[in-house]
Write a structure and sequence with these properties.
Elements: E1 4-9, H1 18-26, E2 37-43, E3 50-56, H2 65-69, E4 75-77, E5 83-85, H3 95-99, E6 106-108, E7 113-115, H4 121-127, H5 131-135, E8 141-145, H6 146-153, E9 174-177, E10 188-190
Length: 192
């Protein structure tokens, strides 16, 4: 089975949130709901303080807790290795949301179901990339085969950062070129 995922160049991310807006727009998400979130963090103290951003979404894990805990099969792994969601099979139990260590699935009360990033699988055939990747003006996001992404972006990539849960159980399909300060365990999340 193929394994597709995201690449994120954290060192070059400006925190502009265009990827977040593109995702919200294409998925017609209501106010307060996001599938891709950009968070900002600060670390260090003057004169060695730094600020960095993290643009995160579903990690389309190799061992997805959401899939393993979904009682209906609504959460499932597709042939391209991404974690997909079938709205018709979802009963809104939120077992996937509870199981996900990254807090990704979003419950839509008005529909009584959970939804999440699907890498805009329906748009990729037409556009070549998920809208979040296509919209990024700094080109810090990419999507594709994990082995190809590793070849393209080098060996200094990581799957986890101090701001994220451990990658050991789920094995996320996200490769990060980290900003040096983002490797520090001492950080504070800051508002926009």
């Amino acid at each position: 089975m193929a394994r597709n995922g995201f690449y994120f160049d954290q060192d070059s991310c400006l925190g502009c949130r265009v990827c977040q807006i593109a995702c919200k727009d294409v998925n017609d998400l209501p106010i307060g709901s996001l599938f891709r979130k950009v968070n900002t963090y600060e670390t260090g103290e003057y004169p060695n303080a730094d600020r960095y951003h993290f643009a995160g979404t579903c990690n389309h894990c190799e061992n997805p807790a959401c899939v393993n805990n979904c009682p209906t099969g609504a959460m499932h792994v597709s042939e391209d290795g991404t974690v997909q969601h079938d709205d018709e099979r979802c009963i809104g139990c939120r077992a996937c949301a509870i199981a996900c260590p990254y807090d990704v699935p979003v419950y839509f009360e008005d529909e009584g179901i959970v939804k999440k990033c699907t890498t805009c699988q329906d748009k990729r055939d037409e556009w070549g990339n998920p809208p979040c990747v296509a919209a990024c003006m700094m080109r810090v996001l990419d999507f594709g085969d994990m082995d190809e992404l590793r070849k393209k972006y080098g060996s200094d990539l990581v799957k986890e950062l101090p701001i994220l849960p451990s990658a050991s159980i789920t094995d996320p399909s996200t490769l990060i070129h980290p900003r040096k300060s983002a490797l520090s365990p001492d950080f504070v999340e800051t508002p926009i």
